Amino acid sequence: MTDTSIGRRTLLIATGATAATLAVGATVQETPTAADQIPAAAAAVCTLTKEMTEGPYYLDRQLVRADIHENKTGIPLKLTLTVVDDDTCAPLGNALVEIWHCDALGEYSGFVGGNGHDEPDNGTFLRGGVLAGSDGIAKITTVYPGWYVGRCIHIHVKVHTGVTLTADGSFEGGQELHTGQLFFDETITKKVALVPVYAANTVRRTTLAQDGIYDEGGAASGLLTLTALGSSTTAGYAGTLTLGVETG
Question: For position 207, what pLDDT does the model report?
């Protein structure tokens, strides 16, 4: 099933090649400009990027937990997502960052069978979220996703504020500020696809370039920065991204 993008937009902090280079001039200014008065965090370069659809596989009231992989096998993935206010670039503390994605065979919990594979379905695997710290950082442990018909490998993400944690380990209420998707570098995905648990996926894989949602916008469109956790593909990856969201 193919997701379609929607028109609402949000912001991501530009990093790497997308960040502006600050040059130091030869002439010293005697009077500080207005830009000189802006704190470094607020002066960061922000790049406008579109929000993306939540897709057909979202389930409400998922668990608040830092590790969502449960018993799913796959290559370890340790996500560090930093949430900031799009106007000031200041960290958005206590925001709840929620993610969900398919397993190595392309199946979502609560919808198993949709990608043609038969496996147990408890309705919770590879779903959940965590509250960001005062620094806006949310860390979630999962596994590298697989793929399903018509879509490249991706993770869905939502950012909420003002939620109430419930006795059953979930959350309720609050305001949803952002719905988007996280994407993976094709060079790394090619290696992952060769690992047996992923190679067992019988569905033809859609590449990043072939995907109808990702628009080649790099980090501005949710492309994670991936860092190897070891010398082999199976050791896993750390994925990072900074999300700027509308708060007003």
Answer: 97
